[in-house]
Amino acid sequence: MTAMAGPAATGIDGARFDPSRTEGRGLADTLRSFKVAVLLGWKLEANWTDPFLFFIYSVAKPLSSALILVVMLEVIGGPAGKAFRPFVIVGSALWAFVLNGVAGLAWSVLEDRERYRVLKYVYVSPADFLTVLVGRGVARIGVGLAGVVITLMVGVIALGVPFDIGRVDWPMLVAVSALGLASIIGLGLLMAGVCIQTRQESWSYPEAFAGALFLVTGAVFPLVVLPAPVQIVGLLTPLTWWIAGTRQALFPGGPGSVGGPGSAFASTFGHPDPSAGEIVLALLVTGTVVTLAAVAVFRLSDRRAKRTGLYDRTTGS
Amino acid sequence: MPALAIEVRGVRRVYSSKKAPIVALDGIDLEVPTGEFFGLLGPNGAGKTTLIKILTTLLSPSSGTASVFGFDVEKDTKKIRRIMNMVAGGEQSGYGILSVREQLWMFTQFYGLAGAEGWRRVDELIEAVGLAEQRLQRVSTLSTGQRQKMNLARGLLNDPWILFLDEPTLGLDVAAARSLRELIVEWRAAVPGRTILLTTHYMAEADELCERIAIVDHGRILAIGSPDELKRRVQRESIFRIELDRLEGGAQALGRLPGVVSATAAAGNEADTDRQSVVMNLVLEDDGALGRVVGDLADRGSHILGLRKSEPTLEDVFVELVGRGFDEAGTDEPGPSAEAIA
Amino acid sequence: MAATMDLVGRAGAGPREAAAWSRRQVLMTNLRSIRGRAYPRVIGLVREPSWVLFEILLPFLGTSAFVFVYRALDAPPQYVGFVVLGGALTAFWLNVIWMMANQLYWEKSQGNLELYFAAPMHFMAILFGMAVGGMVMSSTRAATVLLIAGTVYGVAFSVDQWALLLGVFVLTLGALYGLGMVLASLFLVWGREAWHMGQMLTEPVYFVSGLNFPVARLGFVGALSVAVIPLATGLDAMRQLAFSDAAFPIGTPPPVVEVAILGAMTVISILGARWMLATMERRARRDGRLSVRWQ
User: Fold this and answer.
1) pLDDT reading at C9 higher than 90
2) Could you give the strand order of the β-sheet that contains B304-310, starting from the edge strand earlier in sequence?
3) What is the pLDDT of residue C174?
4) How many of the other CB atoms lie within 10 Å of CB of A111?
């Protein structure tokens, strides 16, 4: 280092080695990495200056999903269909968070590795890789928020979803949103761990995973119509409680998705429907377990990827 | 067999850019006889890759004409593609999920080889380029050198009559680059008429491989000739490095001899106090003056410990032609930032 | 080494003779290119078995969610069949969007595109190869979804015209993958926007194609979809043929007419793809974009 040229010679102002830089600054570094990742994800995905992109992500996709279900109800007709309409619109609107959080986070791995080929550089930067991915996931959820709000607005204004802002249970909404969105990020990490291992064509994997969760979380129909063992799987999934809690907070007194006469919940806990406290507690417990499991899977995947050199590789067929 | 493998007449290629149009090729004229190993030597951004893309039918010239074995690059693209192939340095093409053998076989299909014949050709080439141990390994796990050997094998699958090599040893270590160069030389030598166009900015590589070289800069060919011919262009005087056990009268005494342009102590010689010899650089009007110098040194009682003639390098040629060295010349090859000016 | 290089040598014929291919050579090269390009896709199925979980079982569960929506509504059993058939055909649509339409853009990013263009086969052969490989993948998924759903949900198909159903299926694949070929050229020109276009072509197209319900319920929009979106046409025709005992809302043409529409779509899209590719190659050579990544 003694022979190193000074700033004037190198053209880099103050380019001297500072050993303290290798120590890092702990939490401050993590927060900075997180902030940068959120901003990067937002800039990459939330190009609001492009009306076409805004239309696709915020209107066309979530609204189409909701409309498919609305038409399905209309096709069958009858009073059951009418009663179901707010139920399916809210569930499918909220699902935009799941698709953005789970699929978006996993896609950022594939996109950085296969398309931009920068994953290895992100990985070797001082920023914690997991923190960076979580930041990207948060940005994606931010993108999903617009879709959720617009779909709900269309539901309320045009499709007869009864909504009274004065009846919203705000503390519960805040609690289940925070816990639910954290769980979505956890599931996104799980899929990111999977996509690190798989080939380029695994774009559809995260969406397929989210699609499978659609079946067990009571998003668009009450869990009670499922066979009992599948209902149990649903009750162990944090998204089930997040959707149930959000529904209850936004539309108090409306039909629930978890309980009901003859449901697995009723036979397990002895009463037909969960209370607000039970929903939040169940979300906290299942969310924590799933998130910890997701981080463990991600770390395992990370270790294997390092061992087999997957970060610096493109695949494809 | 046609006399000319490549014929280029007045080719210009202009890319548009937000600031001002970028002239990648500025009226190139070039003839490469069939069977020749021809090199394009120039810094980054000189226009070498642009010319290769035009000749391999991937890019249209803005003006001018170019042909490969008499086939026009604009009109006879399919015919050219049947008899040529190309290999670029740092190439990452292919599908990571396939093994080396499968990847190469896939490409044999694009050149119309029957299934079994394709596998046979692939196995031969894998053996030839020294990838037998990696034949069943997935492409995504190959090292840079192995990958480039596989790329060379891919380039030879259709047994091309002309092979375009664009910086083929880029990023390879010394041993891998040497091995690749040997393969290329042997392949060309095996069948008369096989022609190679090599672009490189490694001067030693061009010097070693090419029968003729065009020195390119800013889209123009500055000089064409064999490496020796090009070097002779800058060698107007003879330069010798001579080592003596002692020298009475110093450098000035030698400098006064007829035919000697200058005599100076070699760099570092004065500073080396441990050295028991004297090293001089002699610049002579021609080789004939060397005899007089040797005779004079004998008269002075000096013993010659070593004598070496200094040859000019292709870099000297480049400096002479361009007025600057390779390192100062580098800019990236111009590429299309918006629409090209046709 | 030298001996090996001699082996692959071709003494005798000169370069001009070697460039003069017969029609048979051209045809065989194109057919072999189809095989060559399909190879990595088919072999990929064996190499990474994770697709069985992610491309068959999980999508099946996703499809099942809509089955339970109908069950919650006590819908007639044929409606469950509609959902299952829609789920099966979705496999082909997704394959067309992500592994056909987006593929050339990927090939360019990977550096394969310029090697394809520098090779002597017709580029349509590459697209056909991608389609064949994709069809193998998607057909496996579709067949599995139909089989599992038929078993688990007891879907009862009622087919009177098997030959017509098979014809509709084949023509639907032709029209779908023909559209994929057209989109592949378009997406290559659009570059990164292609990804967003792919997004646009999923849920919104599912909706207007009547993925889980008879498309006739959408009225004019449904009729328009049947006329221009192969997924909608094929799905409607196959539903009519596979559930001939179901009462259908009036509004869509009978299967025979839809066969004609699918046939026209196939021919137009393949010719369109051919024209688009030629135009795209000409433009790309003029603009120098065949080998520039990320544009």
Assistant:
1) no
2) B260-265, B278-284, B238-244, B304-310
3) 93
4) 19
How confident is the prediction for chain C on average, in pLDDT? Answer: 84
A56 CB within 8 Å of a chain C CB: yes
Please report the pLDDT score of residue C12 as a whole number.
54
Whether C22 is covered by a domain: the verdict is: yes
What amino acid occupies position A288?
A: T
pLDDT tens per residue, range A239-282: 999 999 999 999 888 888 898 888 899 998 888 889 999 999 99
Closest CA relative to residue B122, chosen from B137, B99, B102, B145: B102
Query: What is the predicted pLDDT for the residue at A25?
Result: 63
Q: Pick from B15, B59, B112: which is nearest to C29 by CB?
A: B112
Chains contacting A with at least 3 CB pairs below 8 Å?
B, C
Enumerate the domain spans of chain A. Answer: 26-312
Is C239 among the domain residues?
Answer: yes
Q: Count Cβ atoms within 10 A of the Cβ of residue A20 and give its class: 0-12 exposed, 13-18 middle, 19 or more buried.
A: exposed
Q: Is C199 on the interface with B (CB under 8 A)?
A: no
Highest-scoring range by mean pLDDT, A110-114, B145-149, C2-6, C288-292? B145-149
Question: Torsions phi, psi of A4, nearest 5?
Answer: -65, 135
Q: Is residue C295 part of a domain?
A: no
Residue A313 has pLDDT above 60, yes or no: yes
Residue B70 burial by Cβ neighbours in a 10 Å radius (0-12, 13-18, 19+): middle
Instruction: Name the burial class of residue C55, with classes exposed (0-12), middle (13-18) and buried (19+) by CB atoms within 10 angstroms of its CB.
Output: buried
Q: Give the burial string for A42-72 (b: 16+ CB within 10 Å, else e).
A: bebbbeeeeeebbebbbbbbbbbbbbbbbbb
Residue A39 has a pLDDT of 79
Phi, psi (5° rounding) for residue B292?
-65, -40
Contact predicate A38/A139, CB 8 Å: yes
Tokens (6 digits) for A15 = 């380019």
- Name the residue type at position B178: R
Q: Which of residues 223-252 of B touch C (CB under 8 A)?
A: none
**8 Å CB contact of A61 and C58:** no
Query: Do the Cβ atoms of B95 and A317 come within 8 Å?
Result: yes
pLDDT one-digit tens code per residue, A8-31: 444 445 556 666 666 666 677 778
Give residue C58's domain range. 2-287
Q: What is the per-residue pLDDT for A83? A: 75
Residues 172-211 on A with a CB inside 8 Å of B are: 199-200
Count the domains in chain C.
1
Task: Work out the burial of residue B276: count CB atoms within 10 Å of its CB; fewer than 13 is exposed, 13-18 middle, 19 or more buried.
Answer: exposed
Identify the residue among C6, C7, C8 best suited for mutation to test binding to B, counting B beta carbons within 10 A and taking the highest: C8
Is A199 in contact with C48 (Cβ distance < 8 A)? yes
Q: Which helix (H) or strand (E) holds B184?
A: helix B174-190
Strands B195-200 and B260-265, how do they pair?
unpaired
Q: State the amino acid at position B143 in one-letter form.
A: S
Q: Please spell the DSSP secondary structure of A19-69, one letter per residue.
A: GGGGT--THHHHHHHHHHHHHHHHHHH--TT-HHHHIIIIIIHHHHHHHHH
Contacts of A290 (CB under 8 A, 6+ apart): A183, A186, A187, A190, A237, A238
Backbone angles phi, psi at A19, to 5 degrees: -55, -25
**Counting one residue from A and one from B, how many pairs have CB atoms under 8 Å apart?**
20
Considering the entire predicted model, what is its pTM?
0.79
Q: Which whole number is the average pLDDT over A303-315? A: 74
Tell me whether residue C142 is in a domain. Answer: yes
- Residue A32 burial (CB < 10 Å; 0-12/13-18/19+)? middle
pLDDT tens by residue, B149-208: 999 999 999 999 999 999 888 878 888 888 889 989 999 998 999 999 999 888 888 889
> In chain A, which among 129-188 make CB contacts under 8 A with chain C?
none
Mean residue pLDDT across chain A: 82
3-state secondary structure of B66: strand
